[in-house]
Design goal:
Strand order of the largest sheet: 3-2-4-1-5-6-7-8
CATH topology of the largest domain: Rossmann fold
Strand content: 5-15%
Number of helices: 21
Radius of gyration: 25 Å
């Protein structure tokens, strides 16, 4: 989402690094470019003014550091002030209550219903809750069925009423059902509208009076730019919100909503959704998001996502198979499924530092889908021992998967390269207890140690 803004910032900082020292003229020029980059990213004008004013004030009063280049000095200031704009500290989700009750609100098309299902799964997987989803969106005809389908995928119970007369009745009955079934968390999917209106607000107020939720979370579509700020302000003025969930952060919009919404509304962003998978919901860390925007990546979140979708014993089994030359394409396929559960290749690339992206950028989400199709077209014996796949077998696999022999060749080369890389890293001791410390060291440090 932040690719264009990240490139603009990188260009600004690169030009500054060519300077011997940071002059006030350089600072003013950089600040003009930062301001223009933020406006082009559709960041709210008031937020841009506030952010740039703080950056300029700190830049003018900063002591010149002999250990930092001019670009690094400005990056340090911009990152610090950007973290403040995004909310400074992560906002904790309330998880106490008998039962814990969460109302999910938002406009139609914001990803509200999907977010409700993701949140229920998040509460189960991260807090050990036994959640119940309550289908109280009676405004959109397909909303109840959509929630039931999502609940089935996540193996989470959904309370619905076939002939519901009002959402208030559904909420009251849903809470009664939760207590009877021993559910200790209730996530309520409320009705949305195409735009904010008084009827919607009255309905939400009536539901809140019944549910008395510990959390009322507004789902905001990150792809809607400054409109997201307007929506958030409208809800914030009329509903007792406790936080915001940014959905569709993996989209290709300019990212202005993500930067603007917290400061513009005074509401903390608590969670972000990045991908269609139900596991693609994570805690919002302002410092990590600032690093992503500035092109420095978010390796900590990347590691957390990897650990969440791949149990430690499975990761160790994969490495043991690779280093003992017994790695098969079924193992490779499982790693691709893990990557998909992390939100897909685009989500993973978004969290990697700029320079590290180039090595795997060739494996797009479409390429991943083709790869899965090719592996499924192989026999069990071929998946166990890819060395058997000679010319005639490659032609048969290509025909069966609807791809080309060239695509099959690319897959087998990528698989062989993966095995070689793991063998090399293992030989250097980069997999002690599957720790990632060695892999995350700067390249210059690794080369120095090698000597």
């Amino acid at each position: 989402m932040f690719e264009s803004l990240t490139e603009r910032f990188s260009s600004i900082f690169t030009r500054l690094n060519r300077k011997g020292r940071l002059s006030q003229a350089d600072l003013r020029s950089a600040l003009r470019e930062v301001r223009l980059a933020l406006l082009e990213a559709d960041v709210n004008i008031q937020v841009v003014n506030s952010l740039c004013e703080r950056i300029g004030k700190r830049g003018r009063g900063a002591e010149v550091s002999k250990s930092l280049t001019p670009g690094q000095q400005v990056i340090k200031i911009v990152q610090s002030e950007l973290v403040k704009t995004l909310g400074e500290e992560p906002a904790a989700l309330v998880v106490e209550g008998s039962p814990l009750t969460v109302m999910v609100v938002g406009l139609q098309g914001s990803g509200k219903t999907t977010t409700a299902a993701k949140l229920a799964l998040h509460l189960r997987e991260n807090y050990g809750k036994r959640p119940l989803l309550v289908a109280a969106d009676l405004q959109r005809p397909a909303a109840v069925e959509q929630l039931v389908t999502l609940g089935d995928r996540a193996r989470i119970a959904v309370y619905r009423e076939q002939e519901a007369s009002s959402p208030q009745r559904v909420v009251r009955a849903g809470l009664r059902h939760a207590r009877g079934q021993g559910n200790d968390a209730v996530v309520i999917d409320t009705a949305g509208r195409l735009q904010i209106d008084q009827r919607l607000m009255n309905e939400l107020a009536a539901m809140a009076a019944i549910a008395r939720p510990q959390e009322t979370l507004l789902v905001v579509d990150a792809m809607t730019g400054q409109d997201a700020v307007t929506v958030a302000q409208g809800f914030s003025e009329r509903v007792d919100l406790t936080g915001i969930v940014l959905s569709k952060l993996d989209g290709d919009a300019r990212g202005g909503a993500a930067i603007s919404v917290s400061e513009a509304t005074g509401q903390k962003v608590k969670l972000v959704g990045e991908g269609e998978e139900l596991t693609a919901l994570s805690v919002f860390h302002p410092d990590r998001m600032a690093s992503r925007i500035l092109g420095m990546g978010d390796v900590l979140t990347l590691i957390e996502k990897a650990e969440a979708v791949t149990p430690r014993e499975d990761a160790e089994k994969f490495v043991r198979a690779a280093t003992s030359q017994s790695l098969g394409l079924d193992d490779f396929l499982e790693q691709l499924h893990s990557l998909r559960r992390m939100g897909g290749m685009d989500a993973v690339l978004a969290m990697m530092p700029g320079g590290a992206r180039t090595g795997i950028a060739g494996l797009s989400d479409d390429e991943m889908r083709r790869t899965v199709g090719i592996i499924h077209s192989m026999t069990p014996e071929e998946r166990r021992n890819p060395k058997l796949i000679a010319g005639s077998r490659r032609r048969r696999i290509a025909a069966g998967s609807g791809t080309t022999v060239a695509a099959v060749n690319r897959l087998l080369k990528r698989f062989a390269d993966t095995q070689k890389m793991i063998n090399m890293l293992s030989g250097r001791g980069k997999f002690p207890g599957m720790g990632m410390e060695g892999l995350l060291q700067p390249a210059r440090t690794r080369r120095r140690r090698k000597r």
